[in-house]
Design a protein that fits this description.
Rossmann fold; about 30% strand; 9 helices; 8-stranded mixed beta sheet; Dihydrodipicolinate Reductase, domain 2
Length: about 300
């Protein structure tokens, strides 16, 4: 088994560790976390306060960084120094400059960098995307991506939710060319005064295709739905949460769930590819996902620049 270090000890790190423990090729052995209270939840593993201490003492096979976006570039640099694969969380960065540096580590220096952009490891969505591309002649795309929270201090809510929506859009349409990109804030606090944000992003491609995205952390409930409408008035709709997918044409609804039958979660798919990359001496990683994410960062930076 391959010994993996997890960086971070919050809620998502717990989810990551549970899934690593289910993988018969990966062994969660090391934890990097500065929060003693949170790190106490992880038993029978070797703990460090920073990654420098870890890599100076132990040989590790891979890094999973379940940490905030601003640490992603430094973690990629450590992975490059030790020539080991790493997984980082979305967004890969909150500015184009850092995102491009991360992409170049993978593209030019050939370091296997995996980005947990979950929709792009969702096998149902990827099969649906293939169906959409083959059908062609898309008129418009609508995406709702958000929930009631989370309210994080270390990441803008639209960067947290909207990055998923834009990456899904680019996976289907390709990266532009774009005619016009605009945004409008719809809600900045809930009825109790809790501050957050829900915004609408309109993206018009030069082909004429129009995409409308609503994203944020002040929705009444968690919603992750994409709807693609074609010029012949047919459409497909996919719910990322439930996995339900249907195709509507000539007033008839066809359930596509049987056609898109995958039991593996996006995170499990990602970890399997991560393990394969370690075993194959880094020959197997998803450069296209990093490229899509780089393009997504460029779009979000125009609408929601992070200071």
């Amino acid at each position: 088994m391959h010994n993996i270090a997890v960086i971070g000890c919050g809620y998502w790190a717990e989810v990551v560790v549970k899934n690593i423990n289910k993988n018969n090729k990966l062994n969660f052995k090391y934890l990097v976390c500065r929060n003693k209270k949170n790190s106490s939840k992880f038993k029978k593993i070797i703990k460090f306060r920073n990654i420098k201490q870890l890599i100076s003492k132990y040989q590790i096979d891979g890094i999973y960084a379940a940490a905030e976006p601003k640490t992603n570039l430094s973690i990629v640099k450590f992975a490059y120094q030790k020539k080991i694969p790493c997984i980082i969380e979305k967004p890969m960065a909150t500015n184009t400059k850092d995102a491009k540096k991360i992409y170049d580590y993978a593209y030019k220096k050939k370091i296997p960098i995996f980005l947990n952009q979950s929709h792009l490891y969702d096998n149902k969505f990827l099969q649906l995307s293939k169906f959409i591309k083959e059908k062609g002649k898309i008129k418009k795309i609508s995406i709702i991506e958000g929930g009631k929270g989370p309210f994080r201090k270390n990441i803008h809510p639209i960067w947290d939710w909207g990055i998923h929506a834009i990456s899904s859009l680019i996976n289907i349409t390709g990266d532009g060319p774009y005619y016009k990109i605009t945004k409008r804030d719809l809600k900045k606090k809930d009825k109790y005064g809790k501050k957050g944000l829900v915004s609408k992003i309109n993206i018009q491609l030069k082909s004429g295709l129009v995409a409308k995205i609503i994203a944020g952390n002040l929705l009444k409930e968690k919603i992750r739905i994409i709807k693609v409408v074609f010029f012949d008035k047919s459409f497909v709709q996919y719910n990322f949460i439930t996995g339900d997918c249907f195709y509507f044409y000539n007033n008839k609804r066809k359930n596509l769930n049987a056609n898109l039958n995958f039991n593996q979660s996006p995170l499990q798919t990602l970890l399997n590819k991560f393990a394969d990359s370690i075993e194959s001496k880094f020959n197997n990683f998803d450069l296209d996902i990093l490229k899509i994410s780089l393009s997504s960062v460029k779009i979000l930076e125009k609408c929601f620049p992070v200071k």
